[in-house]
């Protein structure tokens, strides 16, 4: 019976998250686009976005992720203003979600941030950035 209840809760949380995917995409793209309007983003680079996504796989709460970003800003691995924008971009969406879904929302948001960054960085470099050589 507990397994059935856990499965039901998991399905409900997945459905709830599904309802907010578009908001997460638009928030991530908006943060990246706004930052690139000020000039090319120096820090973080693609690797730092990948590190954030990796941390999302391990995090137990959304606060862990915000703490990590502030730490990275303190180490000058992320621009401080950009870090604040990233955190502010996701917060209104997180506020609509129960605690158990927030880390999953962060993982989607981080993934969408990384994708938007790769695109904007390529555009800023004249379309040459992050292209793979064809084999």
Report on the structure:
The chain is mostly helical and 135 residues long. The chain is built from 6 helices and no strands. It is elongated and about 55 Å long.
Question: How does the SSE layout of this entry go?
Answer:
Elements lengths: L1 H17 L2 H17 L8 H13 L3 H13 L5 H15 L4 H26 L11
Provide tags for this entry.
135 residues, mainly alpha
Fraction in beta strands: under 5%
Instruction: Provide the succession of SSEs.
Output: HHHHHH
How would you describe the oligomerization state of the chains in this entry?
single chain
- The helix/strand class is mainly alpha
**Biggest beta sheet summary:** none
Q: Overall 3D geometry?
A: elongated
Distance between the termini: 53 Å
The count of β-strands is 0
- The number of helical segments is 6
State Rg: 16 Å
Q: Ranges with pLDDT <50 over ≥5 residues?
A: 130-135
Helical residues, percent: over 70%
Average pLDDT for all residues: 90
Brief overview:
This protein is mainly alpha-helical and about 140 residues long.
């Amino acid at each position: 019976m507990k397994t059935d209840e856990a499965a039901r809760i998991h399905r409900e949380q997945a459905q709830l998250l599904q309802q907010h995917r578009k908001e997460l995409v638009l928030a991530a793209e908006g943060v990246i686009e706004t930052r690139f309007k000020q000039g090319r983003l120096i820090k973080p680079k693609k690797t730092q976005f990948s590190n954030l996504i990796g941390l999302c796989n391990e995090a137990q709460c959304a606060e862990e992720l915000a703490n990590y970003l502030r730490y990275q800003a303190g180490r000058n691995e992320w621009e401080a203003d950009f870090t604040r924008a990233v955190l502010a971009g996701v917060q209104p969406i997180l506020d609509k979600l129960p605690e158990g879904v927030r880390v999953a929302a962060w993982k989607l948001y981080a993934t969408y941030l990384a994708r938007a960054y790769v695109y904007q960085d390529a555009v800023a470099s004249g379309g040459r950035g992050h292209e793979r050589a064809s084999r």
